[in-house]
C-alpha cells in the first residue's frame, strides 16, 4: 500500500470532510475577519481585471494606450499573486496568510473552469460583503517530520479539543467524531476553511484524505427500494411506507415574519438617523435574532435529512430516486416555498455520498410518467382517450387492468423498476 508521503491529496483513494465549531479569542476573530476581507478583495480584483480586459478587447480601433493596458492586464492575470500585492501593498502585512491569497486566486480560476464545463451559474461575479466571513488556507508538511498525519502539519490537531492554524494559532474546538482520533496516523489534512456564519459562530472545515476507507461498509441486506419524493408526505417508498413532511420552515414562519418586520423598522430608523447599519446596535441585535431563526430551521432540516438518508442507505443495497431539478421546480411560485422547505436536493446529495461511503448503490432516474403509469400492466394515463391524473387525484384505477393505485406508492414502484432496468 502506498504511503501518504508519496501521494498528493488528489491521488489518495478516500476523501472525507469534517466541520468543527471553534472558539477564537478577540484577537483571533480580528485576524479571521482581516483574512476573509483580503480573500474577498483578491477575488474581486481578479473579476475586475478580467472585466476590464474584456471591455478593452471590444475596442475596434485599438490605440497604443489601449494595447499597452491590455498587455499589462494579461501579465497581471498570469501572475496575480505578485501583481495584486505590488499594487496594493497592504496585502503584504504579516497578518495575512500567504495560502489565503493563493486559494482566493485558485477559487477564481476554478469558477471559470466550472463555467466553461457546465455554463450553469454564469461567469464569476463580485463577492459582496455580508455578515458571513470565510477564507481558505492550505496545509503543509515537512519531510523531516516523517509520514504526514493529522498531528504534524502546519494545520494540525494538538489534542482532542485543540488545533492550530497558521497565523491564527491555537484554537479550542468541539464536534469532531471520536473515531477520527483513533486514525490520525493514516489521515492527511488538506485544504482548510475558516468561516463565520450569520449568527456569529466560527467553524473550521477540514478536507481529509487517506489510503484506507473512512467508514466501514455496512453489511449487505439484499433489499432494494424506490423512493417517490412529494410535498404531501416527504417520501413514499416502493414498500408502501410513508415519511411525514416535517415542514420546519412553515412552523417558524409566523415567528420569523414578526422578527423580520422588527428588523425592517430598525433599518428604517437607522437610515432616518443617518447611521450606518453596521454601526446600529439595535439593528445588528435584531439581525442576529433573525439569523438564529433561519439557522434553527436549517439545523432541524439537516438533522432530519441526515438521519433519514443514513437509515435508507444502511438498510438497502440499492436506493433509487427520481432525478429532480430543484431550480426548475422553484419556478412554480405556488409551490416554491414548500419545495424549498423539504430540501430535496440536499437529501439526494446525502444519499449519493453516503451510498459511496457504505459501498451501496444509489441511482437516479427520469421521473417522466412515473405517476401516470400503471406498474402492473404499464398503461400510461393520457393515452387511449384517457385524461392525465391531476395533483388532486391521490388514488386511481387503471382503465386497462383495473388495478387500484395509491398515486405515490405506484410512482415509487415505477421508480424502482426504472432503476433496476438502468443498472441492467
UniProtKB/TrEMBL annotation:
Coiled coil keyword on record: yes
Sequence ranges assigned to domain Transposase putative helix-turn-helix in this UniProt record: 17-55
KW Kinase (keyword) present: no
Start and end residues of each Probable transposase IS891/IS1136/IS1341 domain: 216-332
Database matches in Pfam families: Cas12f1-like_TNB, HTH_OrfB_IS605, OrfB_IS605
Superkingdom in the source lineage: Bacteria
UniProt entry keywords in alphabetical sequence: Coiled coil, DNA recombination, DNA-binding, Endonuclease, Hydrolase, Metal-binding, Nuclease, Transposition, Zinc
Cited PROSITE patterns: RUBREDOXIN
Domain Cas12f1-like TNB intervals: 344-415
Example of a GO MF term: endonuclease activity
Coiled coil segments of this chain: 253-287
Region listing for Disordered, in residue ranges: 132-151
Family to which the UniProt record says this protein belongs: In the N-terminal section; belongs to the transposase 2 family.
Family matches, as NCBIfam families: guided_TnpB, IS200/IS605 family accessory protein TnpB-like domain
Protein name (database record): RNA-guided endonuclease InsQ/TnpB family protein
Source organism of this protein record: Lacticaseibacillus jixianensis
Amino acid at each position: 500500500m502506498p504511503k501518504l508521503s508519496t501521494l498528493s491529496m488528489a491521488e489518495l483513494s478516500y476523501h472525507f470532510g469534517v466541520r468543527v465549531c471553534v472558539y477564537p479569542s478577540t484577537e483571533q476573530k480580528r485576524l479571521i475577519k482581516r483574512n476573509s476581507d483580503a480573500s474577498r478583495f483578491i477575488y474581486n480584483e481578479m473579476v475586475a481585471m478580467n472585466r476590464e480586459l474584456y471591455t478593452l478587447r471590444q475596442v475596434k480601433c485599438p490605440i497604443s494606450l489601449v494595447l499597452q493596458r491590455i498587455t499589462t492586464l494579461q501579465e497581471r492575470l498570469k501572475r496575480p499573486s505578485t501583481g495584486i500585492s505590488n499594487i496594493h501593498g497592504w496585502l503584504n502585512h504579516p497578518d495575512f496568510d500567504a495560502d489565503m491569497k493563493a486559494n482566493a486566486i485558485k477559487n477564481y480560476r476554478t469558477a471559470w473552469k466550472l463555467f466553461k464545463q457546465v455554463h450553469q451559474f454564469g461567469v464569476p461575479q463580485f463577492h459582496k460583503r455580508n455578515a458571513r466571513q470565510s477564507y481558505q488556507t492550505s496545509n503543509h508538511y515537512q519531510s523531516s517530520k516523517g509520514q504526514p498525519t493529522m498531528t504534524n502539519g502546519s494545520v494540525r490537531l494538538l489534542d482532542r479539543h485543540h488545533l492550530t492554524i497558521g497565523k491564527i494559532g491555537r484554537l479550542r474546538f468541539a464536534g469532531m467524531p471520536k473515531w477520527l482520533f483513533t486514525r490520525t496516523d493514516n489521515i492527511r489534512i488538506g485544504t482548510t476553511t475558516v468561516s463565520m456564519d450569520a449568527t456569529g459562530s466560527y467553524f473550521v472545515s477540514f478536507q481529509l484524505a487517506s489510503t484506507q476507507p473512512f467508514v466501514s461498509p455496512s453489511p449487505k441486506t439484499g433489499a432494494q427500494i424506490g423512493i417517490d419524493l412529494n410535498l404531501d408526505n416527504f417520501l413514499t417508498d416502493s414498500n408502501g411506507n410513508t415519511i411525514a413532511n416535517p415542514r420546519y420552515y412553515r412552523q417558524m414562519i409566523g415567528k420569523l415574519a414578526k422578527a423580520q418586520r422588527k428588523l425592517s423598522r430598525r433599518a428604517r430608523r437607522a437610515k432616518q438617523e443617518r447611521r450606518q447599519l453596521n454601526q446600529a446596535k439595535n439593528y445588528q441585535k435584531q439581525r442576529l435574532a433573525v439569523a438564529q431563526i433561519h439557522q434553527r430551521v436549517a439545523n432541524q432540516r439537516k438533522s432530519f435529512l441526515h438521519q433519514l438518508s443514513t437509515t435508507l442507505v444502511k438498510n438497502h443495497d440499492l436506493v433509487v430516486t427520481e432525478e429532480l431539478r430543484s431550480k426548475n421546480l422553484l419556478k412554480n411560485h405556488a409551490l416554491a416555498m414548500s419545495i424549498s422547505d423539504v430540501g430535496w436536493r440536499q437529501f439526494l446529495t446525502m444519499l449519493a455520498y453516503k451510498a459511496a461511503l457504505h459501498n451501496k448503490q444509489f441511482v437516479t432516474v427520469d421521473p417522466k410518467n412515473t405517476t401516470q403509469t400503471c406498474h402492473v400492466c404499464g398503461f400510461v394515463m393520457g393515452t387511449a382517450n384517457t385524461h392525465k391524473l391531476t395533483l388532486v387525484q391521490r388514488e386511481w384505477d387503471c382503465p386497462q387492468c383495473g388495478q387500484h393505485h395509491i398515486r405515490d406508492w405506484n410512482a415509487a414502484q415505477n421508480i424502482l423498476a426504472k432503476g433496476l432496468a438502468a443498472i441492467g
